[in-house]
Amino acid sequence: MEASTVRPAVIILRHGRSFRRIFRFTADRHDPMRLIRPSLTAMLVIGVALLGSSCATPRAQATLMQELNDAASEINGLKGDIANLQTQLDSMRTILAKHDTSITRIANINNVPIAR
After folding, report:
1. Nearest-5° angle of CA 84, CA 87, CA 91?
2. Structure confidence at residue 90 (pLDDT)
3. What is the mean pLDDT of residues 87-110?
4. Quick check: 33 and 39 in contact, CB under 8 A?
5. Residue 100: which H helix or E strand, with range?
6. What is the distance between the alpha carbons of residues 41 and 56, in angstroms, rounded to a whole number?
7. What is the pLDDT of residue 4?
8. How far is CA 10 from CA 31, 53, 82, 92, in A?
9. What is the full DSSP assignment across 36-77?
């Protein structure tokens, strides 16, 4: 492992009558923590936000779960209705095709031209 060549810089500021020392460390371009620190900060902020938003009362959670269950049952009912309509549509297509064939045969027997 290579030793860092970056030295800490000391800045002395005068504020009123007292002096304050501020230690400022300049970041080395090859420092792996330089890339990790912002992501750790972002993850910490996201974690705090999630913890803050997850503090709901049990009654609110129960109400939400009931609403989600009701929505799921309605969606399943709609899926069943759509499947039923698709079956009816397929049946109507079959009946229409049979009627079309019957009409074509009757027209051919009577020498009646059919415009298509």
Report:
1. 140
2. 94
3. 93
4. no
5. helix 58-109
6. 25
7. 53
8. 20, 42, 74, 87
9. HHHHHHHHHHHHHHHHHHT---HHHHHHHHHHHHHHHHHHHH
Question: At a CB cut-off of 8 Å and minimum separation 6, what does 27 contact?
Answer: 6, 34
Cβ neighbors of 28 (< 8 A, separation 6 or more) are 4, 5, 6, 34
- The whole-angstrom separation of Cα 74 and Cα 82 is 12
Dig out the tokens for 59 from the structure: 């009654």
**What's the rounded Cα separation, in Å, for the pair 76 and 109?**
50
**Which pLDDT tens digit goes with each residue over 6-28?**
555 555 555 555 555 444 455 55
Q: What would the pLDDT profile of 32-72 be if each residue is shown by its tens digit?
A: 555 555 666 777 778 777 776 666 688 888 998 999 999 99
Tell me, what amino acid is at 50?
Answer: L
